[in-house]
Amino acid sequence: MTNESDERCQRCGIVGQDRRALFMACFYEMQELNINFQKQNIDGQIFYTLRVCKDCRAKWMESIQHWFNSKIHLITEQQTAEEKLETIRNFLL
Ligand SMILES: [Zn+2]
Question: FRET pair for 3, CA 20 to 30 Å: which of 19, 37, 75, 83?
Fold first, then answer.
């Protein structure tokens, strides 16, 4: 059942309550990600926003956590074998 306060999640499309806005800014044109962001100006700072449901907010937070903790791509040719192994060990923990 829907009512006037129901709102569609911009990510999954489910209609319901408890929609909240994610605010993102990184001084980069995030429209290039081909995501239907809205823009909001707060005190001169432009934020890209998405109104999403609780499940989608949780997935967004998991994605950030995964990105932050995934450092396997930081292995470089310049690292010694021991440094590479240390990076892999940290990734697996
Ligand atoms: Zn959703």
Answer: 37
Q: Please give all residues whose CB falls under 5 A of ion ligand 1, grouped by chain where several chains appear.
A: 9, 11-12, 52-53, 56
List 80's β-bridge partners, or say none.
Answer: none
> pLDDT digit string (tens) for 42-89?
999 999 999 999 999 999 999 999 888 877 667 778 888 888 888 777
For residue 65, report the distance from its CA to the centre of ligand 1, in Å.
18
Tokens 């998991």 belong to 62
**Can you give the pTM of this predicted structure?**
0.72
Strand spans (E) along the chain: 7-8, 15-16, 20-24, 38-42, 45-52
Q: Find, among 3, 39, 34, 7, the residue nearest to 22 by Cα.
A: 39
Quote the tokens at residue 60.
């967004």
